[in-house]
């Protein structure tokens, strides 16, 4: 989870488009500088007034979940610089004060009176899903537990490019310094081959490399230990390499039959072809590092616990992290009110979201099949749209 953060799963075809979480979603790879003809922020993409909140017909229980998640985000909303260009930290003071005072029964009324609905760009949305997986693991190396789970290396450097140019605000790169040069960090293939071995970075050991690969895609998860206890691990950085969706690679190579371009089909192929599985997984050069979580979790990009069926990962250049989001799509499960509390390596651009479903079999099934298309709206403090429009007037 970026993911500090849960990395996004981006399944069926989404694994094909995914992650950090989470992804970690999360923990997200460093963002490449976009092409100059593409909008870099929500403000640049264009902001229009959306429909009234009341017309969205948000179910009462969804409004309550979103209000609880929004309250958790309020501290961050009032501290962070909003990379989307939509709001200032001070804009959220009044809505956050009202949220703290509102009862659960007043949840819908809070959103209707304190916030307004805005559309970013054309509003056309694409949403995938992620969840918190549980795999077999051990705190120490043991027979059957040989896949190292690494903590963040001390020589992994993250550079805020916004310190060097205003046009690069919100952009970061990761790597390592060698002979006074910033170079790319080791990729997945190098790390799997032992590139980090012997440095005391092993946090735990997974029983299965394929299971661990997908936990990395999520950016957070649970290890079921040999004694039956559970160890929770969360995103603690990423090697800076771009995320590559192996489902897409496998389709292009003709490895997946029609109808198998989903998580189940990808895993089936990997297990049926163990001699090729690692090479395919190495096509995704991204590697996620972990830390043990001992408090509430999993944690999202704001460093706060994320909530199943309430948290969504978004691109912070297009959505203020902590802001509510309304989705109306062709997948009923994804419809309703969410709160942008996470980011992900493949969650880039306007109206691109990754919905978090929690843990368990149902969460895995929903997240694994989630590919929703429709429209999205961002809820911002009253007066935001008018102010932005006034700023663009000649």
Describe the overall structure.
The structure is a single chain. The protein has 394 residues and is of the alpha+beta class. The chain has a single domain, classed as Ribosomal Protein L25, Chain P (Beta Barrel). It is 25% helix and 25% strand. It has 11 helices and 17 strands. It has helices at 42-45, 60-77, 93-101, 107-114, 188-195, 209-218, 246-252, 263-272, 274-281, 361-368, 384-392; strands at 47-49, 115-120, 124-132, 134-138, 147-150, 157-160, 172-178, 181-183, 202-206, 220-224, 230-238, 288-293, 311-313, 324-329, 336-342, 352-359, 372-381. Strands 3-16-13-15-14-17 form a 6-stranded mixed beta barrel. Strand 7 and strand 8 (181-183) form a beta hairpin.
* Helix share bin: 25-40%
Poorly predicted ranges (pLDDT <50, ≥5 residues)? 2-36
Q: Sheet bearing the most strands, described?
A: 6 strands, mixed, barrel
CATH-level-2 architecture: Beta Barrel
Which strand-content bin applies to the residues? 25-35%
Q: What is the total tally of β strands?
A: 17
DSSP summary: helix tally: 11
Count of the separate structural domains: 1
How do the SSEs run, as a string of H and E?
HEHHHEEEEEEEHEHEEHHHEEEEEHEH
Look at the helices and sheets and give the structural class.
Answer: alpha+beta
What is the highest CATH level, the class?
Mainly Beta
Say which CATH homologous superfamily is assigned: Barwin-like endoglucanases
**Whole-number mean pLDDT:** 88
Distance between the termini: 42 Å
CATH topology: Ribosomal Protein L25, Chain P
Assign an overall shape. Answer: globular
- The neighbouring-strand order within the major sheet is 3-16-13-15-14-17
Radius of gyration from the alpha-carbon trace, in angstroms:
20 Å
């Amino acid at each position: 989870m970026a993911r500090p953060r849960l990395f996004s799963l981006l399944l069926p075809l989404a694994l094909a488009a995914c992650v950090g979480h989470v992804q970690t979603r999360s923990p997200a790879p460093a963002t490449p500088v976009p092409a100059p003809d593409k909008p870099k922020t929500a403000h640049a993409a264009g902001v229009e007034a959306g429909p009234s909140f009341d017309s969205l017909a948000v179910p009462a229980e969804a409004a309550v979940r979103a209000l609880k998640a929004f309250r958790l985000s309020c501290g961050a909303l009032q501290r962070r610089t909003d990379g989307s260009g939509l709001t200032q930290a001070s804009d959220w003071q009044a809505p956050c004060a009202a949220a703290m005072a509102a009862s659960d029964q007043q949840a819908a009324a809070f959103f209707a009176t304190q916030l307004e609905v805005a559309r970013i760009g054309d509003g056309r949305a694409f949403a995938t899903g992620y969840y918190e997986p549980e795999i077999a693991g051990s705190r120490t190396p043991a027979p059957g537990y040989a896949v190292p789970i690494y903590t963040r290396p001390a020589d992994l450097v993250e550079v805020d490019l916004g310190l060097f140019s205003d046009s690069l605000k919100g952009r970061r790169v990761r790597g390592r310094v060698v002979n006074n040069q910033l170079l790319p960090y080791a990729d997945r293939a190098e790390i799997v081959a032992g590139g980090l071995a012997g440095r005391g970075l092993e946090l735990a050991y997974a029983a299965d490399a394929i299971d661990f690969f997908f936990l990395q895609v999520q950016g957070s998860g649970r290890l079921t230990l040999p004694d039956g206890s559970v160890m929770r691990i969360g995103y603690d950085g990423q090697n800076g390499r771009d995320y590559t969706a192996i489902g897409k690679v496998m389709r292009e190579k003709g490895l997946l039959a029609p109808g198998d371009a989903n998580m189940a089909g990808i895993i089936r192929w990997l297990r049926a072809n163990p001699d090729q599985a690692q090479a395919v997984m190495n096509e995704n050069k991204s590697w996620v590092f972990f830390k043990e979580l001992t408090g509430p979790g999993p944690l999202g990009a704001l460093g706060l616990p994320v909530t199943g069926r309430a948290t969504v990962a978004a691109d912070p250049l297009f959505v203020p992290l902590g802001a509510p989001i309304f989705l109306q799509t062709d997948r009923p499960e994804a419809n309703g009110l969410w709160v942008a509390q996470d980011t992900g390596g493949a969650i880039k651009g306007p109206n691109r979201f990754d919905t978090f479903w929690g843990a368990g079999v149902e969460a895995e099934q929903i997240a694994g099949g989630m590919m929703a298309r429709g429209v999205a709206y961002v809820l911002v403090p009253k007066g935001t749209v008018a102010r932005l429009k006034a700023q663009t007037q000649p």
